[in-house]
Amino acid sequence: MTHEHYMKIALELAIQGLGRVRPNPMVGAVIVNENKIIGKGYHEKFGEPHAEINALRSCVDEVKGATLYVTLEPCCHYGKTPPCTEAIIRSGIKRVVIGTRDPNPLVSGKGIEILKTQGIEVVEAILQEECMMVNRFFFHHMKMKMPYVAMKYAMTADGKIATKTGESKWISGEGSRRYVQQLRRQYQGIMVGIGTVIKDNPLLTYKADLNQSPIRIICDSQLRMPLTSQIAETAKHIKTYVVFSKELSETRTGLSKRKALERKGFCLLDVPAKAGHLDLSLAFRALGALGIQSVLVEGGSTLNEAVIRKGLAQYLYTFIGSKILGGHEALTPIGGNGVESMSDARALDLVKIKKIEEDVLLEYRFRKE
Ligand code: AOF
Ligand code: ZN
């Protein structure tokens, strides 16, 4: 069997950690001796043993002389758990086949060096692209110190996100809404503008398991958050940031509003604003510094426009419902004034088309500018 064959199995194991290991990467490992798989494991839960350790513990046969396949370079640092390199060396494994290097500066190539100095053969970059893709949020955050940002909206076949009176339930069907629930489980944070909170009073959770719900982030420069909203009522149990204007935080009204929100359980984050608009680049930078690796932006059209204008998004999910609303006044997904010339359009690369019942989902990557 090829290296790719076993790495694929390791990748399938890795994604079983989805939603449970973040902000750690998802990692899978397979141990093979004489063409036979003798052990398998993956990183199951944040703070618990790494993939390699679980694979070693699962071995029934002799590990000496075996090959370890692992989707990410083994760590060599003391984190919440001891270094995987030490356990590998102790086990008598002869060869380690790695999907991709760990971008964490505490590891980044050092894990490989340690294994090599102990006489272990190391094979690198097997299914590297796929191994990076499963942890694209972790890689992006390590490199950019900013969260990986994806935007999601649902629009009608004529490109509207609500009627002219603001009704938006429902543009997309049940299947699409179930899909969005799965997305919420994948992203560490979910962001909306305060307009959406006031208009729709959403909960913004992963409903099947609140423990896997993303952190909620509300852009609310003037602290208009209603204290009776569903979000406010649940802020003590589900971590929720309110991002607001630094200028407001220095006024007396700002201070009293801030106190009232803190009593409700909100975490307050102030960032500079210009003409009442938050500096979103600084907001995302601050969220990155708080360890938030990925954010799903769920609108509305004002927030979406600001995110796109500043080039802050990497990925886009567009759901298209089989309906037409019509009208000049009905909102479209991206508000503001838009660009004047076709040459200023934001370019996208289409990566996926999916039919979901009567809806269509289009997934795009934002082309780098
Ligand atoms: C591995 N195997 O399965 C994972 C690794 O705090 P800790 O001890 O859990 O360490 C977290 C760091 O370890 C994380 O930032 C990443 O660099 C690496 N993750 N390494 O060898 C694994 N999950
Ligand atoms: Zn490790």
Describe the strand arrangement of the main beta sheet, using strand numbers: 10-9-8-7-13-6-14-16-15
Number of strands: 16
Distance between the termini: 42 Å
- Proportion of β residues? 15-25%
Ligand kinds? ligand AOF, zinc ion
Short description:
This is Riboflavin biosynthesis protein RibD. It holds the Pfam family RibD_C. This protein is α/β, with parallel strands linked by helices and 369 residues long.
How are the SSEs ordered, and which strands pair?
Elements: H1 3-14, E1 28-33, E2 36-42, H2 51-58, E3 67-72, H3 84-91, E4 95-100, H4 110-117, E5 121-123, H5 128-134, H6 136-144, E6 148-156, H7 174-186, E7 189-193, H8 194-200, E8 215-219, H9 230-234, E9 240-245, H10 246-249, H11 252-264, E10 267-271, E11 273-274, E12 277-278, H12 280-289, E13 294-297, H13 301-309, E14 315-321, E15 348-356, E16 359-366
Parallel strand pairs: 3-4, 4-5, 6-13, 6-14, 7-8, 7-13, 8-9, 9-10
Antiparallel strand pairs: 1-2, 1-3, 11-12, 14-16, 15-16
The chain binds ligand AOF and zinc ion.
Pfam families: dCMP_cyt_deam_1, RibD_C
Domain CMP/dCMP-type deaminase: 1-123
Function: Converts 2,5-diamino-6-(ribosylamino)-4(3h)-pyrimidinone 5'-phosphate into 5-amino-6-(ribosylamino)-2,4(1h,3h)-pyrimidinedione 5'-phosphate.
Could you describe the 3D structure shown?
The chain is α/β, with parallel strands linked by helices. 31% of the residues lie in helices and 24% in strands. It contains 13 helices and 16 strands. The chain has a 9-stranded mixed sheet with strand order 10-9-8-7-13-6-14-16-15, sandwiched between helices. A 5-stranded mixed sheet has the order 2-1-3-4-5, sandwiched between helices. The chain is globular, with a radius of gyration of 23 Å. It starts with a helix and ends with a strand. The model has no long low-confidence stretch (mean pLDDT 96).
